[in-house]
Specification:
single chain, alpha+beta, 5-stranded antiparallel β-sheet, 12 helices
Length: 311
């Protein structure tokens, strides 16, 4: 039994809204990876990081504490008094900050190095419109700087500390990249799953079926994908892995998740074409084997057993 045109339009609108929500989640993941506060440990010292306009900023206060726990602010001010430091900061701002005030900078540079010259991070920001250094007040505040500037400051504090800071920062970014990639793949899989279940509801489930019957159809179609890709149903997997948390798909590798997303789209297409479930299962299994051969060097995907006549 086919749905009315109005029912189909309502279904499409609902699907569009759900896809928009998932895409917004992905956008939030991408933004959150750069704006969230994080911490790394460098030579047994905690160093905070934060995000400013999608750029990583490192806490200079924490770096300074490696050299002097009690006088970190004084160390930062002494570093800012250095003419070489100001030349570096001024050049960085001219490259990265269109609002930088070069006239004010020239005035500061002329008196840099004099015994009477002093400069705090706040004064530097207010007078020149600098963006490479940020000053945060409060108990958990401190002076933060763009990674380029933070590494320059770390060199002034300790070359050893700078090298370990680079190493730990790279480790953090790699971990974030892997985590972000997993979260995005899960959200994309959610979109494909929604498209897949929508096709089932449109082409396989007449409106008069009850909720229990509907759920049975969904479970059956989910196991079509499980059999095609994993060689077993969800129930079979749970029986063979009683101590494992989650489900069979939670244990899947990145390659399997990519293949699963493709199979969901293909199964939705096959359903719309009216192919019977046994034929779809065979096709999907063959496609899964081909795709996994491309996605991984070792073929761990089991083939479906031969189907006997009458079964």
């Amino acid at each position: 039994m086919r749905r009315s045109p109005q029912g189909i339009m309502e279904q499409i609108a609902t699907l569009d809204a759900e896809i928009a929500e998932v895409l917004e989640n992905i956008k939030s993941l991408l933004n959150g990876a750069s704006v969230m506060s994080r911490k790394i440990e460098v030579l047994s010292r905690e160093v905070r990081l934060t995000g400013v306009n999608d750029q990583d900023y490192v806490c200079l206060t924490d770096i300074a504490r490696y050299k002097n726990q009690e006088a970190s602010d004084d160390l930062i001010r002494n570093w800012l008094r250095n003419r070489n430091t100001l030349e570096f900061l001024g050049l960085w701002e001219q490259i990265n900050n269109v609002q930088f005030n070069p006239v004010e900078f020239d005035g500061i540079r002329k008196v840099a190095g004099l015994n009477s010259f002093t400069l705090t991070p706040k004064q530097w920001i207010e007078r020149t419109g600098a963006i490479g250094i940020q000053s945060k007040a409060g108990r958990y505040g401190g002076t933060f700087a763009h990674l380029d500037i933070a590494l320059e400051f770390a060199s002034w504090i300790s070359v050893e500390f700078k090298l370990y800071l680079i190493k730990e920062f790279q480790r953090l970014k790699e971990t974030e990249r892997q985590t972000l990639g997993w979260d995005i793949r899960r959200n994309l899989a959610k979109i494909n799953y929604r498209i897949h279940t929508d096709a089932i509801q449109t082409h396989l489930i007449p409106p008069e079926l009850g909720k229990a019957q509907t759920n049975l159809v969904y479970a059956s179609e989910a196991d079509v994908l499980n059999m095609a890709l994993f060689g077993q149903t969800a129930t079979q997997w749970r029986g063979a892995n009683p101590g494992q948390k989650g489900n069979i798909r939670d244990q899947a590798t990145s390659a399997l998740l990519v293949c699963l997303s493709n199979l969901e789209n293909l199964n939705a297409l096959f359903i719309s074409q009216g192919l019977p479930q046994p034929e779809r299962l065979i096709r999907l299994n063959q496609i899964a084997i081909q795709q996994m051969k491309l996605l991984t060097t070792d073929n761990r995907l089991p083939e479906l057993p031969d189907r006997k006549k009458g079964k």
